[in-house]
Write a structure and sequence with these properties.
Length: 516
């Protein structure tokens, strides 16, 4: 047995007793720190405490335990370096061939309600990361184990081969460095958010933890996986969603579901959002969820095929019966009644996502990330909406109070539609949506063609200013009565003149909502 001594110092003690017992049976001597040593000794496992090796007690309430040359020299000495080994002999230092270590539960601690900063700080591990990094650096000579899930494989290798081969040692070292890097990134992120208002710092380590593998990525020939940023957020979102039934979520399902969830957050009233290819194709708020669904679906009755639907209220029997009539990929809600679940179970492949608190969430994370090749973009979340009280009426005709309420609803809709985008609404339901176009007039033309007669008497919202009057002319011909847009074009006067010519009320919000 090449492995003669193992140092065990773990915060997460799951499985450690059985693992240490197996090591002991293989003739491996065990060193350990206070709490772990007591547990092993209690279970009849021979153990020598680190303090006996260092000749120095654990001090400062346990802040200093393993930080000692007799420990780290025993880990870092290169076994094939004659001078290193002579140094160990000269100072009577015992070599350590295995480190079993996981870290103080910082991530769990910061998720406690009303946790004090003192408790948080005391759960920043110092000795543990040092042990792990030292062992991982000297991976050829020292086995580093950081996860209880690794115990069984290590014991199997030791029993069958008497050692752990170099490929496995390399993999263990990679996992060890990943473990400490993630740990430090979580600490950095927490303290930055706690102590500063710097949401876009010069350096921003971002830990990523795999939540699931995808069958494939955006297309079948591409691999894909879904990662979360720990610690897991409390905000209702796709990463906190619980899948109740159906096939595993695909890469595209996750993108579409994220869009559906973020759009539904705009509205407090019972609301339905229908998503197709990461953009809304129907949105409606109503007195009941059933009416909201019917109004949203009426916007565009063919695009929802194979789409994603989100709601901000519990789904009951009547809504479930209507949804069952269509082919949908994913249905999202804060909860489902038992009757609704029974109805949906008849469609085994239909994915149901429960997103708790979606009907009563309070705060949102401040930053969102998007990847580009070789880097990341970061920006503040677009969660603000300039109050209609600050909007400016720019036409001769003034909007009515009812129209202003519809304008606010329309703006909340258009900000979630791919640019260039326009949306037409009546009351609190969409009747035409045009998005993802290279020209605003094209988006307007598409929305009016899809909306048809329903556009007459509607309110139009644009995510950005009109560069020309052409889109206003198209909307007027279709029967729009009022327009809300950010304003700010060099041709604003031309656009306002067009609205006046058509007898349309126009309001400037002063806030653009591009979505790329």
């Amino acid at each position: 047995m090449k492995i003669s001594t193992a140092l065990i110092s773990v915060s997460n003690k799951i499985g450690i007793t059985d693992f240490a017992r197996d090591l002991s049976k293989l003739g491996i001597k065990i060193l350990s720190t206070g709490g772990t040593a007591k547990l092993l000794r209690k279970n009849g496992i021979p153990v020598r405490e680190v303090t006996e090796v260092t000749g120095f007690p654990e001090i400062l309430d346990g802040r200093v335990k393993t930080l000692h040359p007799r420990i780290h020299a025993g880990i870092l000495a290169k076994r094939d370096d004659k001078k290193h080994m002579e140094t160990l002999t000269e100072h009577g230092i015992q070599q350590i061939d295995m480190i079993v270590c996981n870290l103080y539960p910082f991530e769990e601690t910061i998720q406690k309600i009303n946790v004090s900063i003192e408790e948080v700080i005391e759960n920043i591990d110092i000795g543990g990361p040092t042990l792990i990094r030292a062992a991982a650096k000297n991976y050829r000579d020292v086995i580093i184990i950081t996860d209880p899930k690794q115990y069984d494989d290590i014991i199997q290798s030791l029993k069958t081969k008497g050692d752990v081969d170099i490929a496995e040692r390399e993999e263990l070292a990679i996992k060890a460095f990943t473990h400490t890097a993630e740990y430090d990134a979580i600490i950095s992120r927490y303290l930055r958010e706690k102590w500063t208002n710097d949401i876009l710092p010069e350096k921003m380590p971002i830990p990523l933890r795999k939540k699931q593998d995808m069958r494939y990525g955006e297309n079948p020939h591409l691999k894909g996986s879904f990662y979360i940023i720990p610690p897991e957020t409390n905000e209702p979102c796709i990463t906190t969603a619980v899948q109740l039934q159906g096939k595993p979520l695909s890469y595209n399902n996750i993108l579409d579901s994220d869009c559906a969830i973020e759009t539904i957050k705009e509205f407090k009233e019972p609301t339905c959002v229908i998503i197709k290819h990461a953009t809304p194709c129907g949105i409606a708020s109503a007195s009941t969820l059933l009416k909201a669904w019917r109004d949203a679906y009426a916007t565009d009755t063919y695009s929802p095929f194979g789409g994603i639907v989100s709601f901000n209220r519990r789904i009951g029997k009547r809504v479930a019966e209507e949804l069952k009539k269509l082919f949908l990929e994913v249905i999202i809600a804060p909860s489902f009644t038992r009757d609704a679940l029974n109805i949906f179970q008849q469609k085994k492949n239909l994915r149901l996502l429960e997103v708790k608190k979606l009907d009563k969430y309070d705060e949102r994370n401040r930053i969102q990330f998007r990847s580009v090749i070789g880097g990341m973009l970061a920006q503040e979340r677009d969660i603000t909406l300039i109050s209609p009280r600050e909007w400016r009426v720019v036409t001769k005709k003034k909007p009515t109070e009812e129209q202003l309420r519809s304008m606010e609803f329309a703006v909340r809709c258009v900000k979630h539609i791919k640019s260039n985008s326009v949306v037409f609404v009546k009351g609190t339901r969409t009747v035409g949506i045009g998005g993802g176009q290279t020209a605003r007039v094209d988006a307007t033309w598409i929305a009016t063609k899809k909306g048809g007669e329903n556009i007459k008497g509607s309110i139009m919202a644009s995510d950005a200013f009109f560069p020309f009057r052409d889109a206003v002319d198209v909307a007027a011909e279709a029967g729009v009565e009022a327009i809300v847009q950010p304003g700010g074009s060099i041709r604003d006067e031309e656009v306002i003149k067009a609205a006046d010519e058509h007898g349309i009320a126009m309001v400037f919000t002063g806030q653009r909502y591009f979505k790329h």
